[in-house]
Amino acid sequence: MRTLTIESKLWLVFFPLLLGSNAGALARTADEAWLRYPTLSGRASALAHPITIIGKGEILNTAAGELIQGLGESATEVSPGAVLPNHDAFVLGEWQGVGPLLTELDRSRAPSGDGFWLKTVQHKGVKYWVIVGASARGVLYGAFRFLALAAEDKDVSTLDDREIPAAPIRWASQWDNLDGSIERGYGGRSIFFEGAQVRPDLTRVREYARLLASLGINACVINNVNADPRLLKPEAVTSLARVAEVFRPWGVRLAISVDLSSPMSVGGLNTFDPLNPEVAAWWRMAIDRIYQAIPDFAGFVVKADSEGRSGPSQYGRTAAEAANVMARPLAVHDGVMLYRTFVYNHHLDWRDAKADRARAAYDYFHPLDGRFEANVVLQIKYGPIDFQVREPASPLFGAMPHANEAIELQVTQEYTGQQRHLCFLVPMWKEILDFDMHVKGETPVKTIVSGAVWGRPLGGYNAVINVGLDPSWLGSPLAMANLYGYGRLAWNPDLSSEEIVEEWIRLTFGASPKLIATVSRMLLSSWHSYESYTGPLGAGTLTDILGPHYGPGVESSERNGWGQWHRADHQGVGMDRTTETGTGYIGQYSPEVARLYEPPFRCPDNLLLFMHHVPYSFVLHSGKTVIQHIYDSHYAGAEEASTLVDEWSSLEELIDRERYQAVRKRLEYQAGHAMVWRDAVVNWFFKLSGIPDAQNRVGFNPNRIEAEDMKLSGYQPVEVTPSETASGGKAVVCRQEGPCEAVLKYDGKGGRYDIKVQYFDLNNGISRYQLWLGDRLIDSWSADDRLPSNQLNGHTSTRHTIPGVELKPFDSLKIVGYPDGGEPAPLDYVEVIPSAE
Ligand code: GCV
Fold first, then answer.
1. Which of 88, 179, 278, 307 is flagged as catalytic?
2. pLDDT: is 275 or 9 the higher one?
3. How far is the CA of 307 from the centre of ligand 1 (A)?
4. 784 given a catalytic annotation
5. How far away, in angstroms, is 476 Cα from ligand 1 center?
């Protein structure tokens, strides 16, 4: 037994040395997100007591360190050992150590798995705040939970909170490449890699592990599923071990994505056929080598036979054979094999009305049920296409009673606004998790992936997260609500969206009722708004699927092999996935679910175009026609997005300047870009259907003056592609060296106006713009954002607003554009709108 009793101030100074360099009290360089414990000081003062750790170990030390960091000076001593103190204290430890010492604890409530029990106990005249876990990891999760409760201003003087996570697999995935870039990453470069190496400084990795641990996430895959085989080379394994070491005190196990062809590309064999004995031996050797360096290695994720990746089909083998060849040697070390079911042919024949990418995962994996090793987990994207803004739950969830399953979610907002648009995804994930697959009585997806329905030993959650070096991790403080929400749902999918939002706001920003009410409303309405102005009725996001998946690009889904078709023509829109006349996809569900979707009049409006091809005049349950719904929802959604700026502005006094400004800038941008989306989609459907908007908005923009209609000097009109991403299909560009000018004579009434300038912000230059009123310069700005394109299109179209300008009839407004690099100071239009005040 060892007892340390140290003065509080000294303790805070020496703590990192005593508990190891990875413990809690670290210099912070990044946003602490929800771990700021904003209201803790008040509560903590009532909790002046030392900390006793029963047992030893790195993770237990981390738990104590986190308590010290959260409680500050009220946590005065730490006594690692095996004896209970004779004064009030926190008592931390695993059940096997704590249970026998505290007979007051009801044995039948002992935590299991990664679970914990927070319990106040009166013992021989003193009071203990017991944080006991089935494992050390559970203790750490319990410490985080205790601090969160205190920070949320809950009463922690009496505790009885026993929590067992819903599923054993609660993983985070990064799509980081070895060169430091991140596929679908919108928060800066990799925290793990740079220049084909693991970064020398892993400070941010440690901070990330702390965030993950606070949510109960127990493993992290650090490289892209489009895996670089070099990570399996012997020298790479040594540097992977450095990452694992940084993760370990936080209970986060390292995992990696591997490429199936590694036995050839790294091992020098002339085959990667999973049934070849040499290939099996190579995997065994490679896996054993990893475990020698990283004994707690979590396992592999594999993407195979998908989007050009190598796969077992090249040898006529199945996914089960491929998964099992790696799973067997992993099992020896308690490792798992997450095999992705995102397997489809991206060279489908779009002319074939029966071809359907949505069918692929079920068609391919369903016949393999029962053929996977016990440590293989099928990782299934929540919907059958690809992280779209609205998809039905994948039918595969209900089709593999003899396999372990994990749901794959996407925190990084690839198809949902790339963290530039507010889109809180928890309500969408909840709809999927709560969706009843009706495969064995009541069987919501969450009970299937937890393993409960079919008594599977493994299962759970993996989300693509893609944090980067950006100080706010995901590039936007509000986007962090998705990471928080993911972790909370993976721990407890029964939490409501409202509960998660409130927790997150309290921990991230504080407990002001106005703040909680406003930010809750903003977050909880954001998915619906985003869906409304991008792709309602289950049509997908209608984004440019051949480009960066960001701005509108409706046509891009059609007439190619990728299978994200919405099949819009002059008469109607939507994919016919019925069993009656379509691809038969609906038949992949249980009969109860199939009956929800077929025939079309029964199908919920929000999935209608996913399941059916209908005429534009089809009348929805709402009473509107499909085409009018498309128009209305785009106008309503864009309008909702524009109100976010004012809602956020009402909180200016309640939020620190840095985060307030960062979010405000994004919301202003979003308000403008939502209109780009709205205009592009409604114009595209109007052109195709020829059906006018009953409210006369489509094609009528009374306050808008097209740049090509202004008096131009130096500027040249150009056609924009796709045409619906510029107003009137045209813009103007300045291809000369010096500045160009576009002038308009204001011919309306005198008064105060907001002037909105729509321009294109390309990523190959930083053009500058000036707005002159007569001979007075009234504003200037730079096109310095890093939007994902170097062309004039729906990704780059951007709005700049100059509020409250006094105008008189016949005033002259002049925009002067200064091109830079490849960016020709492009302009689309100007709107002059009466100011709200
Ligand atoms: C990592 C989508 C994304 C790809 C991603 C793929 C996957 O197609 O656009 O970037 O590749 O999904 O999940 O494997």
1. 307
2. 275
3. 8
4. no
5. 22
**Amino acid occupying residue 128:** Y
pLDDT band at 171 (very low <50, low <70, confident <90, very high): very high
Q: Pick the closest to residue 826 from 745, 722, 724, 719 (CA basis).
A: 719
Q: Which residues line ligand 1 (CB under 6 A)?
A: 175, 183-184, 224-226, 303, 307, 342, 386, 414
Closest to 763 measured CA to CA, from 788, 735, 739 = 788
Please give the distance, rounded to the nearest whole angstrom, from the Cα atom of residue 110 to the centre of ligand 1. 41
Q: How far apart are CA 591 and CA 777, in angstroms?
A: 67
3-state secondary structure of 534: helix
Which amino acid is it at 446? K
Q: ω into residue 722 within 30 of 0, thus cis? A: yes
Cα–Cα dist 430/531, whole Å: 16
**Per-residue burial over 801-810, b = 16 or more CB atoms within 10 Å of its CB, e = otherwise:** bbeebebeee
| Pocket mutation for ligand 1, best pick of 386, 415, 549 (most atoms within 8 Å of C-beta) | 386
Ligand 1: distance of its center to the CA of 457 in Å?
28
- Helix 426-433, helix 480-491: angle, nearest 10: 30
| Residue whose CA lies nearest to ligand 1 atom number 14 | 225
- The radius of gyration of the chain from alpha carbons, rounded to an integer in Å, stands at 28
Helix, strand or coil for residue 433?
A: helix
Q: For this structure, is 434 an active site residue?
A: no
What ligand 1 atom has the least distance to the C-alpha of 381? 13
Q: Which residues contact 82 (CB under 8 A, 6 or more apart)?
A: 1, 54, 55, 97, 101
Whether 156 contacts 146, CB under 8 Å: yes
Instruction: State CA 778 to chain mean position distance.
Output: 39
How far apart (Å, rounded) are the C-alpha atoms in residues 686 and 699?
9
CB 214 within 8 A of CB 501: no
Q: Which residue has the tokens 């106005």?
A: 514
Q: Which helix (H) or strand (E) holds 449?
A: helix 445-449
Report the interhelical angle of 626-649 vs 657-689 (nearest 10°): 170
User: What distance in Å separates the CA atoms of residue 762 and residue 676, rounded to the nearest whole number?
Assistant: 15
What digits encode the pLDDT tens for the residues 608-666? 999 999 999 999 999 999 999 999 999 999 999 999 999 999 999 999 999 999 999 99
- The residue count of the chain comes to 837
- Give the DSSP H or E segment for 320: helix 319-332
From first CA to last CA, the distance across the chain in angstroms is 71
Q: How far is the CA of 414 from the centre of ligand 1 (A)?
A: 9
Dist. CA 418–CA 795, nearest whole Å: 11
pLDDT in tens, 459-508: 999 999 999 999 999 999 999 999 999 999 999 999 999 999 999 999 99
Catalytic residue, chosen from 414, 470, 640, 679, is 414
Beta strand segments in 382-429, E: 404-410
Active site residue 414: yes
278 CB burial (10 A radius; 0-12, 13-18, 19+): middle
